[in-house]
Amino acid sequence: MDPIRNPYAPGAGQRPPELAGRDEQLENFRVVLERVARGRPERSMVLTGLRGVGKTVLLNALRSAAVRAKWGTGKLEARPEQRLRRPLSSALHQAVRELGHPQSDDVDHVLGVIKSFAQRDAAPNAKLRDKWSPGIDAPAVPGRADSGDIEIDLVELLTDAGGLAADLGRGVAIFIDEMQDLHPDDVSALCAACHEISQASLPVIVVGAGLPHLPAVLSASKSYSERLFRYARIDRLSRDAADAALQRPAEDEEASYAKDALEAMYAATGGYPYFIQAYGKVAWDVAPQSPISAEDVAVAAPAAEAELAVGFFGSRYERATPGEREYLRAMADAASALGPDEVDEVESVPTSAVAEVLGRKPQSLSPARDALLKKGLIYSGERGRIAFTVPHFGKYLRSVS
C-alpha cells in the first residue's frame, strides 16, 4: 500500500478524513444557528467526553458550520493559569471581523469595548507599556466592560457584540476548548452572562468542550447551568460508524478492508476515534495490498500500540510525579480487581479501593488525587469514585508496571 496515499490522520485535534458518527450533533447545531439568528430562544452547547473521542474535532466542525452560516466566530483554549479576559478578547475580535458589518462607526465602538475589556486585565493605574493590547486600532471605550467585575463586564461585552450581529440577522459564536480549566470566577461570570444574553434574546452563543466532569463544574458555579446549556456527551463510535471511519477514506484511495479486518480493528480500538486513526494509519502502511486483512491488523497492532504508548499515554504519564504515578497504577490495579458487575462504562473505581491497593488511608492520598484532578489525568463523575480521562489508560499502566 502506498504510504503517500495513506488517508488517516492520528493528530491531536486534526480532522479525520471521515467525521463519522457525529451527524446528530451537527444537525442539532444547525438548528441552533437558525433559531438564534431568527431571534428564537435557544441554549448554548457543551460537549463532554474522554480524551481521544474527538471533542476538539467536533468543536472545529461546529465552528465551520457557523462560519458557513456567515456568523462571527472566535475560539479559545482555556488554561488553568490564564484568566478569561485576554483569550476571550482575541476570540471576539476575530468574531467581529468575520461579521463584516458595513457601519464602521458601529464596528469601531464594539472593538473599543473589546479593547477596554482586555485592558482591564491590568491594574487601573498601570502604565501603557504594561497594558496588554489585543491588536485593535480603535480607541478603548471608557466606562464600558471595564468595571473590573468580570460578570458585569462580560454582560456588557457580549451585549454589544450581539447587537452588532443582530443588525445583520446573524450571530456570534464563541468556542471554548478545555472548558473545565477555566478559573472558577470566570466560569461563574460566563454562565451569568449567557443567562442574561439569553433573556435578552441576543444572537450570542457559547459552545464549550471539556472532560466528563465539566457539567459538575458548571453546576457548582451556577445552579441554573443545567438549564442554560444543551449538553452532548461525545462517546466512542458505534461499530457501523467506526467501520465508516475506516472504509470511506480507504475507498477514496481505491482500497478496502476485509470483513474480519474491520472486526479486528474495532476490537483493538474500542471504537475510540483517535485510536481508529492511529491503527488505521499503521495498518495501511504495513498491508502489502488491498483489501487490508485481519493479519495485516495483527501485524500493525504492536507498532500502533508503541506509538500510542509514547505520544498518547506516555506523554500524560510523564506529567505525573512519582507519588501521582503510584496513585495512577493503583487505580489501574483496583479496576482490574473489580468483578464484571462492578465495572461501569468508564471503568471508574472507588477511592477507597485505591487506598486499599496502596495500603494507605484515603485521607493521606488526597494531595496526589487532587493534583491528578488538576492536571486533567483523572476525573470524578460521582462522589467517592474516580476514573481516567484517557480511555485504555489502565491497560497501558498495567502493561508498563
UniProtKB/TrEMBL annotation:
Pfam families: AAA_16. The keyword Iron applies. Keywords: ATP-binding, Heme, Iron, Metal-binding, Nucleotide-binding. GO terms for molecular function: ATP binding; electron transfer activity; heme binding; metal ion binding. Residues 166-317 form the Cytochrome c domain. The keyword Nucleotide-binding applies. It comes from the Bacteria. Residues 1-23 are annotated as: Disordered. InterPro entries: AAA_16, Cyt_c-like_dom, P-loop_NTPase. This is ATP-binding protein.
